[in-house]
Design brief:
By secondary structure, the chain is an alpha+beta fold. It is built from seven helices and six strands, in the order ααααβαββααβββ. It is globular. This is Chorismate lyase.
Length: 189
Amino acid sequence: MITGRAAAIGGPLFLLFFLAGCCAMPVSPQSLQRELAAEPSATAVLQRHCDRLTGGRTPLRAQRLPNDHEPALPDLLANLAVSDRNALAVRHVSLHCGNVVFSEAWNWYVTARLTPEMNRILASTDQPFGRVVRPLGFHRHSVASTLTGLPRGIILQNRALLLRHDDAPIAFVLENYFPAVLDSMLPED
């Protein structure tokens, strides 16, 4: 029974407003897909999710994975506007929030379009690509985003071209997202 001030301002109506937060739409691969599409940096999106899980105490980190079984992408050189595969470096990583793996990514990038310091950091540290190249003012052009027909354990796959502020392509990414990232998402309103 509602008593006191709640009863005075409308009883059942107050209860509906009070409980409104319980009925927000659940998080889903589709909501993650929309969030990633609205941002230039997947790293920034995943860091926000990591902050929710850890209270802002844990930086997102990239753990290097073997470059064996590199996916074949027929339009890779054309997308990156280079004619020589040797102009590219490849980075295969999983992105972690503490011990939780949010995603796995293949990243092909044009070394000549990054600074020497950025290339050094990417080659020798666990810093995520988006954090390292943020000073370039890059933006993201989605090539494909898939929710169905994916390998078991993958809830979303994105393919995107990252472009500098002057629209020069700097990287092509293939990103696979895992269910654990949904645990860090806020319900939709």
